[in-house]
Design goal:
The chain is an alpha/beta fold. The protein contains 14 helices and 14 strands.
Length: 473
């Protein structure tokens, strides 16, 4: 039987830019998300446009009390959300914060704590203030370390008695593939030099270490982690060249967790920079800061694995995956082309644990699918999402197997526990939640909430601490 630790943190995860709405209320400034109406890989607009569903989200800003009550009904022990940086510092480079923004998160955290739900807060989740992108070219500029440090200190001080668990950046390794969304870099990707991109990576890593230092000074009991996009890479064949191609792909992800945990650039990264003529501008004390202020735990998202080959031209590329990769003929895929691989999650957990011996936390996992609102036998509106239950059951079963393998895992927060706007496609129809939100891709809908079939299933999983999970068929 699968056994989870007694203190395991079950819950759900969201991001401010995908569900809060109220993009211009109570002093909030614009973020890069407000000019990205079509998702991750598309060009930005000059101003917010009405077709950007993220501007309204699911109106969590005004409905958070009702939604938190639903999370409590499921039995959440933890709830991951992010603070919108531009709600606290509207332009990002001010010296004084916006009190109305701070008060909103005070109220939200109070509501969570009322139900005994621990907040798990991401400081920067793909929502760099737009002004920092336009005036400074985002994280390519060294000054962002100072601005992020001020922002971090402000929220750490404000919520030091309400929030214990913190993440510095969301999926920090995605900056290589989505520099505007992940790094607030306004220069178009095709014009961005390797030198500037790697310099931005360095600035973010220094800023993460700085935030860890500041947080520990304010409250030594803070648990501060990094957050990376995890994706095991399989070789397409046993050909050693394919195996090496998979290793190279994984190193691009390991780079970020290696530095967060070990505090220094690994040899493979130094070699890459040396061979590509990249010379980082490193200020005095930055390497020491990174070395001395490493993270307490490693958190990650997991949605799929990838397959790599030395000569990928002879194979079909996967769809919908910002990290690239080839189609694995042994796996099924979601409606958006994301290959479904529960065993890959066990592999990731073991790889991270064996590499670092640091506590782990799964902070994103789930299935994006097109849901249909129907009437149940009692005449109540719901979604019969057995496909989501099957997906999550099979993944969580493998999580239990990894725990049995000896992995130390803090918790699990399913992504989009309430339907929100997809980051990759900016659609509402790509739904992840246990709670259906009546909003459509064209912006229509009542925003009413309805419990899906998976709502009751996840409630049982939490209540039984995973004992209700079934062995995969």
């Amino acid at each position: 039987m699968i056994v989870f630790p007694e203190n395991f943190l079950w819950g759900g995860a969201t991001a401010a830019n995908q569900y809060e709405g109220a993009y211009n209320e109570d002093g909030k400034g614009l973020s890069v998300q407000d000019v990205m109406p079509n998702g991750i890989m598309t060009p930005r607009t000059e101003e917010p446009t009405e077709d950007n569903l993220k501007l309204k989200g699911i109106d969590f800003y005004h409905r958070y009390k009702d939604d938190v009550k639903l999370f409590a009904e499921m039995g959440f022990k933890v709830y991951r959300t992010s603070i919108a940086w531009s709600r606290i510092f509207p332009k990002g480079d001010e010296t004084e914060p916006n009190e109305a923004g701070l008060q909103f998160y005070d109220d939200l955290f109070d509501e969570l704590l009322k139900y005994g739900i621990e907040p798990l807060v991401t400081l920067s989740h793909y929502e760099t203030p737009l002004h920092l992108a336009e005036a400074y070219d985002g994280w390519t500029n060294h000054q962002l370390i100072e601005f992020y440090g001020r922002y971090s200190r402000t929220v750490f001080e404000r919520y030091k008695d309400k929030v214990k668990y913190w993440l510095t950046f969301n999926e920090i390794n995605s900056i290589f593939n989505a520099p505007l969304m992940s790094g607030g870099i306004n220069t178009p990707k095709e014009e961005l030099s390797q030198q500037d991109l790697w310099q931005a990576v360095h600035h973010e890593l220094v800023a993460s270490a700085l935030a860890t230092k500041i947080g520990k000074e304010i409250n030594p009991d803070f648990q501060i982690g990094c957050m990376v996009l995890a994706m095991p890479a399989y070789p397409m064949t046993p050909n050693p060249k394919d195996v090496l191609a998979a290793r190279h792909f994984e190193n691009e992800n390991y780079l970020f967790s290696d530095i967060h945990v070990r505090g220094e650039y690994p040899g493979y990264a130094k070699r890459y920079m040396r061979e590509h003529g990249i010379e980082l501008a490193i200020a005095d004390g930055e390497l020491e800061l990174m070395k001395e202020h490493t993270v307490d735990f490693i958190s990650f998202s997991y949605y799929m694995s990838t397959t790599q080959a030395h000569n990928p031209e002879g194979y079909s590329s996967g769809e919908g995956n910002i990290m690239g990769g080839l189609i694995n003929p042994h796996l099924d895929a979601s409606e958006w082309g994301w290959q479904i691989d529960p065993i890959g999650l066990r592999i990731v957990l073991n790889d991270f644990w064996n590499r670092y011996q640091k506590p782990l936390f799964i902070v994103e996992n789930g299935l994006g699918a097109k849901d249909e609102l129907v009437e149940d036998e009692n005449g109540n509106l719901t979604v019969m999402d057995q496909y989501r239950i099957d997906y999550m059951n099979d993944h969580l079963y493998q999580v239990g197997e990894a725990i049995a393998d000896g992995v130390e895992l803090m918790g699990y927060t399913s992504w989009g526990c309430i339907d929100l706007v997809s980051a990759s496609t900016a659609q509402m129809s790509k739904r992840y939640g246990f709670i259906y939100v009546d909003r459509n891709d064209d912006g229509s809908g009542s925003l009413e909430r309805y419990k899906k079939q998976s709502f009751g299933w996840y409630k049982d999983v939490i209540a039984t601490n995973g004992a209700s999970l079934k062995a995969p068929k």
